[in-house]
Fold this sequence. Notes:
This protein is α/β, with parallel strands linked by helices. The protein has 13 helices and ten strands. The strands form two sheets. A seven-stranded parallel beta sheet has the order 1-10-9-5-2-3-4. Strands 6-7-8 form a three-stranded antiparallel beta sheet, covered by helices on one side.
Amino acid sequence: MARPVEAQNSRLLSKVSTLYYEQELTQQQIANRLELSRPKVSRLLKQAKNRGIVQISISHPEGDHVGLESKLELYYSLNEAIVVDSGSGTPKSSDKILKALLGGAAANHLSRSLSDGDIIGVTWGTTLQAMVEKVTPADNKDIHIVQMLGGFGPPEAKAHTMGISRSLSQILNARLTLLQSPGVVDTPEIREVLINDRRVKNALNLFPKVNKAYVGIGAISTNRILKEGNNEVSHDIQQEIIHSDAIGDIGLNFFNRKGETVHSGFSDRFIGMTLEQLKQVKTVVGIAGGTEKYEAIRGALSGGYINVLITDRHTALKLIEEEL
């Protein structure tokens, strides 16, 4: 007596699944062995999953936050989210540890996603510097590093935009284009003169060609140029930004909670990539974490300025809670 069709089909599903998952044959090898077409083998494997004949479980290692990452990607329409553990210890040591963790994750992302011909833009800050310190040399060809923000502070500082750009280009054996101007100048007239300078225009003209950008996300409370006593920006402009609805910045482009650009007297004195230009970059990796950065990170997400987020577990949980 012939076996029922259902039993025969179940046996075939089990057979194909065993050959594929346990014996690790390719779909084409299974097709040849069982005299089936390769598309039919693919359909049978899918049926086996749907009927529960094949059940796949993933064992996540300790410190793996894939579940959180998946929710962030879903809620904020991100290409990828990378979540690291939050720093612990005293506030000062915790901040240093967190930046090292974020920088390490960003360096890993850069290394694994690097492709021949990439034109990579970078901004400034201690978290970006932590990334550069963890980047390893690569064999990719024709990589180009572009400084996306004019200089701030003493040029010898490690977190200076020029220093970050130069260090990264040396590690990757890449070409380098520096934005050879201050990040902010005294008057709109000076800005107009500088952006028409041949060397400055050389960098500005590369902005539309940048296909990857690595940026920090700053909070108003931690922004160095808004600190009392900083003479790189006039007191009037400092107060204008502080008393506006700005909650954060990317490369000194200020935005509010909705992610909208906050225009001020600073905008007419700033030299660097704008938020609108940043939106045209294919992959923008935002690297930030910690309690003080939460509002700024959420504003950057709301504005759609980044499509890859690297942050810490506590911040990730808070971002998800806001969407529930």
